[in-house]
Amino acid sequence: MFSISKIFTAAVIASSFLVGNAVAQPRPTKSVSPFVAQLIEYRTPLAYSTVIERLDAQVNKTGALTFVTKFRAAKTREEQRSLIADITQGRNFLYFSEANHQKWLDIYFPDVSHPGGTIYTLGNPTFAADIIPLDYSTSINIPLRFMILEQVDRSGTRIMYHQPSSIFAPFNKRDRQLQTYIKSLDTGFADLFEGIIGY
Ligand SMILES: *[C@@H]1O[C@H](CO)[C@@H](O)[C@H](O)[C@H]1NC(C)=O
Q1: Does residue 91 line the site of ligand 1, with CB under 6 A?
Q2: Half-sphere exposure of 23 (CA within 13 A, CB side)
Q3: Is the CB of 84 under 6 A from ligand 1?
Q4: Ligand 1 atom having least distance to the Cα of 91
Q5: Atom of ligand 1 lying closest to residue 60 CA
Q6: Which pTM was predicted?
Q7: Is 89 close to ligand 1, i.e. is its CB under 6 Å away?
């Protein structure tokens, strides 16, 4: 199919010949790779505020709030590792950021009472240091994200995320070590949420 951009590119290449610049640049490429992701969802009768409170404790939100600034300023690996160890205290993940959709929706639609809904990102750079060098493309999923959602009728809370091993599936399938690290993220997520809701 002819597209405007192809015709335009052809014109640019032709004109570069005309001005005596015969070096044709390689064409840009695009690839599309479908993959099947698994959506994991836990439901609990626990109140949204209780789930958030337990989660924030598990990922040490308070301690982690200044993490990014300190981590950027760290000058050595030892410094980086000690910042992480100080926040995680043996737990797997630490808090990075959140997007609270209830807050802005309550302002945008002031007459509606919205259920709680927060997207968190969390991770652990010591895990990422194992994973990323094995395939830099894996970084698209790092840090990991998940959602805590209050039931619309306030009867409880849902926790939703994409199974890490499923969203990392397009990357370096033959690397056993990478697969092992990524499987441990599945376990880490399950342990975190199952601990919080007592599954
Ligand atoms: C949370 O992180 C801070 C470091 O910012 C640390 O001092 C504190 O002990 C951590 N708390 C827990 C419960 O791990």
Answers
A1: no
A2: 1
A3: no
A4: 14
A5: 1
A6: 0.86
A7: yes
The b-or-e profile of 177-193 (16+ CB within 10 A means b, else e) is ebbebbebbbebbeebb
Ligand 1 center to 124 CA (angstroms): 15
> For residue 57, how many other CB atoms are within 10 A of its CB?
12
Strands 94-100 and 144-150, by their bridges, are: unpaired
Map out the domains of the chain as residue ranges: 36-197
How confident is the model at residue 174, as a pLDDT? 86
- Which residue from 50, 46, 87 is spatially nearest to 66, judged by alpha carbons? 87
Q: Which pLDDT value is given to residue 22? A: 67
Angle at which helices 176-197 and 48-58 cross, to 10°: 130
Structure-block tokens of residue 171: 């990357």
Binding site membership of 117 for ligand 1 (Cβ less than 6 Å): no
- For residue 55, report the distance from its CA to the centre of ligand 1, in Å: 14
pLDDT digits (tens, 9 = 90+) for 30-57: 999 999 999 999 999 999 999 999 999 9
CATH superfamily of 36-197: TT1751-like domain (3.30.310.70)
Low-confidence spans in the chain with pLDDT less than 50: 1-2
Which atom from ligand 1 is nearest to the alpha carbon of 89? 14
